[in-house]
């Protein structure tokens, strides 16, 4: 009896400890140091500069440039893209916009955040933000829900006076993700993450040559595999608790010590 | 002794084989990089107006020379750099002659910094501004190879050689499908120059920068040259048909095409059962277009039934409008099941602004990925897993009741056994 109880307690402790840890460790392909953050941006989907989550990428450009970055996002994450543009000393009113596209170059909606903002005449900087929807493991092909894979960020000025074109600006972009976990989990998964050029990439990996790729976020770089979900933790802890409750219930019926009706020497 | 000699010979042979083995692929690789080396041509306006002293107190020419020197020092090893001038030689007033005045100052190739710098130092502001002809020549200079190609045009005035509109020239160059980008820099430009240079940049997906200070110039040119060194996937040129039967069959890869206003383009892709087709398309507006536009990508069966579509619409200033679609084909029990031909139809609703030429068509970029679909089902809930506090409560309750029941049952059994 004592052994089972001890075992139960140990299992519970193990479950509690492993649970959140395992839930947290749902692999995020991002999270790296700020040290070697990119200092330039691409100018098209094809040339987008790759950044990791948590990195602060900077770039210098000209007003009117279309600046592109790309980052990976995995199932259960809710990415937030933030951008700051430092404007030249003198300029007229200009409107800046931050757009997020998924690996299929479909425009992604922002739940909230100032995606478009107009900087008043002479303003020193403009700040933009986009809180995306939670990345799901799977969705119908007819929906454009965010799926694990590459995401593109495009930063540009959408409305400006002719005289402001080509002025030097500095942009700063940072992507952070909040782990939403099972609360918005859906079942199912993709065969491969939505990384553009992934079919060509795996073919190329086989013959061993190294070449330019559309997006280097690979299929083995820690994407969640689809079988993992925090349901394992919930169900596991539930099972352990049920076992403990069972032991408790059983113990209740036995009372403490020997039943009075049972004669001694049995 | 003999054994030792044999060992030494063996090691020698092994080493020789290794070096031979290493040498061969290394040679092949070097050859390949030669082919794929990024090429950049700096096109500098050396017209009379470059004499103006309005960049940080110096002449525009002095600023350009200094910037070139800095850029030449910082050019990455793998970049093949060339320099072309326009308006450097002809001093006369004959427009016809002046508009032919463009010279390849330093040929595109591996960079010899001293030679290039000496060549730049000899320049003196002289003649006309034949931007159009210079761009055409520059595009020819960059011909060949499979690497990225970039022209960096530095000018301080608009083209003086109409009617050849440099903007049209740039679009024609881009339409050749050789993946050439033209970036333009305007030195203290007026409104007209700015319009023209930004038009040239837009036509080829390049950038336009307005330069008023010396360090801005060298920073920007340096940045553009460095950008050329980044390896980029070169798209394959293809030509879509006007209906599915005649459409080109594509496999996974990146493609470019040109789509005229109001035209539809068809492509087809084979998808085996259990595979997933992913296609995305972007149509760039390389000229002035009306501010409301859209793009539609449809996946259609050969019989004309629509499977899935991607659509996007937008308004205002943009470089591209893009959309994509995904079509996972259901796995089949029959291993011999044939691949399905999926037709992809692309239409865009860009419309040319008044007075803008509609040919050549708009640049279109298509990515096709045929990947393996999910194998089996990964539905975690199908394992009987659940989540949430209600689940925990229920499990605890059931466990407790089961324990209670078991306890009572065993007591009852003991009691029955006792009485018997």
TrEMBL record, chain A:
Residues 22-41 are annotated as: Disordered. Keywords: Signal. Residues 1-23 form the signal peptide. The keyword Signal applies. Residues 22-38 have a biased composition (Low complexity). The keyword Signal applies. It comes from the Bacteria. This is Secreted protein.
Automatic annotation (TrEMBL), chain B:
Residues 39-228 form the VWFA domain. Pfam families: VWA_2 (PF13519). The chain crosses the membrane at residues 389-409. Keywords: Membrane, Signal, Transmembrane, Transmembrane helix. The keyword Transmembrane applies. Residues 1-30 form the signal peptide. PROSITE patterns: PROKAR_LIPOPROTEIN (PS51257), VWFA (PS50234). This is VWA domain-containing protein. It comes from Streptomyces tricolor.
């Amino acid at each position: 009896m004592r052994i089972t109880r001890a075992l139960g307690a140990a299992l519970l402790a193990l479950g509690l400890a492993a649970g959140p840890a395992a839930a947290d460790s749902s692999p995020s392909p991002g999270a790296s140091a700020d040290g070697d953050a990119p200092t330039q941006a691409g100018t098209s989907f094809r040339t987008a500069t790759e950044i990791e989550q948590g990195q602060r990428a900077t770039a210098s450009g000209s007003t009117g440039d279309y600046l592109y970055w790309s980052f990976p996002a995995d199932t259960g994450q809710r990415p937030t893209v933030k951008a700051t543009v430092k404007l030249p000393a003198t300029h007229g009113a200009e409107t800046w916009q931050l757009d997020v596209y998924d690996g299929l170059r479909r425009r992604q909606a922002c739940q909230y955040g100032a995606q478009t903002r107009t900087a008043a005449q002479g303003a020193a900087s403009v700040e933009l933000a986009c809180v995306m929807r939670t990345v799901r493991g799977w969705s119908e092909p007819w929906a454009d829900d965010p799926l694990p894979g590459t995401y593109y960020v495009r930063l540009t000025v959408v409305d400006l006076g002719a005289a402001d074109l080509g002025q030097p600006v500095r942009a700063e972009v940072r992507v952070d993700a909040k782990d939403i976990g099972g609360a918005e989990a859906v079942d199912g998964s993709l065969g491969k993450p939505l990384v553009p050029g992934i079919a060509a990439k795996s073919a190329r990996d086989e013959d061993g040559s190294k070449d330019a790729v559309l997006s280097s976020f690979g299929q083995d770089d820690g994407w969640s595999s689809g079988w993992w979900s925090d349901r394992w933790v919930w169900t596991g802890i539930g099972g352990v608790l049920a076992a403990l409750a069972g032991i408790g219930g059983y113990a209740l019926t036995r009372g403490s010590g020997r039943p009075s009706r049972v004669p001694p020497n049995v | 002794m003999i054994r030792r000699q044999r060992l030494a010979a063996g090691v020698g042979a092994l080493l020789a084989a290794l070096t031979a083995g290493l040498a061969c692929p290394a040679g092949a690789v070097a050859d390949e990089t030669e082919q794929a080396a990024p090429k950049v041509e700096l096109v500098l306006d050396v017209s009379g107006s470059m004499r103006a002293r309005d960049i940080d107190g110096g002449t525009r020419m002095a600023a350009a020379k200094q910037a070139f020197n800095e850029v030449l020092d910082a050019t990455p090893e793998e970049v093949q750099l060339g320099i072309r001038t326009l308006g450097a030689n002809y001093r006369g007033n004959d427009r016809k002659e002046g508009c032919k005045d463009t010279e390849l100052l330093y040929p595109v190739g591996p960079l010899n910094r001293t030679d290039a710098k000496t060549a730049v130092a000899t320049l003196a502001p002289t003649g006309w501004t034949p931007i159009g002809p210079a761009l055409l020549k520059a595009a020819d200079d960059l011909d060949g190879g499979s690497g990225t190609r970039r022209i960096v045009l530095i000018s301080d005035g608009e083209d003086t050689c109409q009617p050849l509109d440099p903007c049209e020239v740039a679009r024609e160059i881009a339409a050749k499908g050789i993946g050439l980008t033209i970036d333009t820099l305007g030195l203290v430009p007026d409104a007209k120059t700015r319009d023209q240079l930004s038009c040239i940049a837009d036509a080829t997906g390049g950038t336009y920068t307005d330069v008023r200070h010396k360090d801005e110039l060298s920073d920007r040119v340096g940045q553009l040259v460095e950008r050329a060194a980044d390896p980029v996937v070169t798209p394959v040129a293809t030509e879509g048909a006007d209906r599915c039967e005649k459409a080109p069959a594509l496999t996974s890869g990146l493609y470019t095409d040109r789509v005229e206003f109001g035209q539809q383009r068809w492509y087809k892709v084979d998808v085996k059962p259990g595979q997933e087709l992913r296609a995305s398309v972007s149509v760039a507006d390389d000229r002035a277009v009306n501010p409301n536009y859209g793009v539609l990508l449809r996946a259609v069966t050969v019989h004309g039934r629509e499977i899935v579509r991607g659509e996007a619409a937008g308004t205002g200033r943009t470089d591209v409008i893009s959309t994509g679609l995904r079509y996972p084909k259901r796995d089949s029990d029959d291993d011999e099941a044939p691949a399905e031909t999926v037709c992809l139809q692309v239409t865009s609703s860009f419309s040319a602004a008044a007075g803008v030429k509609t040919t050549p068509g708009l640049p279109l970029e298509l990515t096709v990925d045929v990947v393996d679909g999910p194998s089996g089902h990964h539905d975690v809930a199908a394992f009987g897993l659940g989540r949430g506090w209600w689940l925990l409560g229920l499990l605890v309750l059931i466990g407790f009741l089961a324990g209670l029941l078991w306890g009572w049952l065993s007591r009852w059994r003991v009691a029955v056994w006792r009485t018997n």
